[in-house]
């Protein structure tokens, strides 16, 4: 809404994913399609005509197919697109952003709405759709409160990744994720080792029915425990593949500060 004027309308499916967007100024509707992991894989018109398709590699955008042309993404260390090139290698889109994602300069002949991992730029509002919440990069805060509420030592309902956007991302608006932590072929075991370590360090229950779980009573801040627990998991030999790209979900609220 802009005063009494409706800018856009959104429809969500049972999983909380945005399924449809109608923009008033264009009087056009876009349908969004996702894979089983919740990644946006296509956009279409209400009549079923495909407008764009997205290809991913290890969860990061690799290419966009639009108007029978393919464009390749060049991402930063977080997995956020910084440049797009066509099949000849020519730059067709380029973006520069401030640390919390606010646009500094964007140019190009194609449209790219992908921002931080899990975020989709809405030109009609200037906000980034982030699955469970909407993010305002101009202030580095979410518009809606954290769904978990004031629990487990959290002290900021609207903050983004503990005010550390250089190292963390939040793909769904619920949980901060450290970017670039490699777990190799034993990712599942490493995740449990990491989360168990975080439980013991923070006193926050992260694993369901974990007999070794600590009481729900904050001991240390999650950001103070992350490096220790990552090194602990790696020490046990679960991070041998330096080329992998599985990210480790932290025992940290997306809005912890």
Topology of this protein?
Blueprint: E1 8-12, E2 18-23, E3 28-34, E4 40-45, E5 50-57, E6 60-66, E7 69-75, E8 81-85, E9 91-97, E10 103-108, E11 120-121, E12 128-130, E13 133-136, E14 141-142, E15 168-169, E16 175-178, H1 187-202, H2 222-235, E17 248-253
Antiparallel strand pairs: 1-2, 2-3, 3-4, 4-5, 5-6, 6-7, 7-8, 8-9, 9-10, 11-12, 12-13, 13-14, 15-16, 16-17
Describe the structure.
Helices cover 12% and strands 34% of the residues. By secondary structure, it is mainly beta. It folds into two domains: 8-142, no CATH class; 167-253, no CATH class. The chain has a ten-stranded antiparallel beta sheet, with no helix packed on it. It has a four-stranded antiparallel beta sheet with strand order 11-12-13-14, with no helix packed on it. Strand 3 (28-34) and strand 4 (40-45) form a beta hairpin. The longest helix is centred in the last third of the chain and has 16 residues, at 187-202. Mean pLDDT is 80; it is low at 181-188, 209-217 and 237-257.
How would you sum up the global shape? globular
By DSSP, the count of extended strands is: 17
Q: What series of H and E elements makes up the topology? A: EEEEEEEEEEEEEEEEHHE
Structural class by secondary-structure content? mainly beta
**Major beta-sheet overview:** 10 strands, antiparallel
Which residue ranges are poorly predicted, with pLDDT under 50 across at least 5 consecutive positions?
A: 181-188, 209-217, 237-257
User: How large is the share of residues in beta strands?
Assistant: 25-35%
In angstroms, what is the radius of gyration?
Answer: 19 Å
Biggest sheet: strands side by side, in what order?
A: 1-2-3-4-5-6-7-8-9-10
Structurally, the number of domains stands at 2
């Amino acid at each position: 809404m802009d005063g009494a004027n409706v800018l856009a309308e959104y429809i969500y499916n049972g999983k909380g994913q945005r399924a449809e967007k109608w923009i008033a100024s264009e009087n056009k509707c876009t349908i969004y399609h996702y894979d089983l992991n919740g990644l946006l894989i296509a956009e279409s018109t209400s009549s079923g005509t495909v407008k764009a398709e997205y290809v991913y590699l290890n969860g990061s955008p690799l290419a966009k197919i639009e108007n029978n042309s393919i464009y390749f993404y060049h991402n930063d260390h977080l997995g956020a697109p910084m440049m797009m090139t066509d099949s000849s290698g020519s730059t067709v889109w380029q973006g520069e952003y401030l640390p919390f994602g606010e646009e500094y300069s964007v140019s190009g002949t194609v449209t790219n709405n992908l921002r931080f991992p899990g975020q989709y730029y809405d030109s009609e509002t200037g906000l980034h759709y982030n699955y469970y919440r909407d993010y305002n990069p101009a202030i580095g805060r979410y518009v809606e409160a954290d769904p978990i509420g004031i629990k487990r030592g959290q002290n900021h309902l609207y903050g983004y990744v503990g005010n550390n956007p250089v190292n963390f991302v939040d793909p769904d608006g619920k949980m901060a994720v450290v970017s670039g932590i490699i777990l190799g072929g034993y990712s599942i075991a490493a995740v449990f080792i990491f989360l168990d370590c975080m439980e013991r360090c923070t006193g926050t229950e992260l694993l369901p029915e974990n007999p070794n779980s600590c009481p729900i009573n904050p001991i240390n801040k999650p950001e103070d425990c992350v490096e220790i627990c990552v090194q602990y998991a790696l020490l046990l030999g679960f991070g041998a593949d330096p080329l992998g790209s599985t990210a480790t979900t932290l025992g940290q609220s997306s809005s912890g500060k």
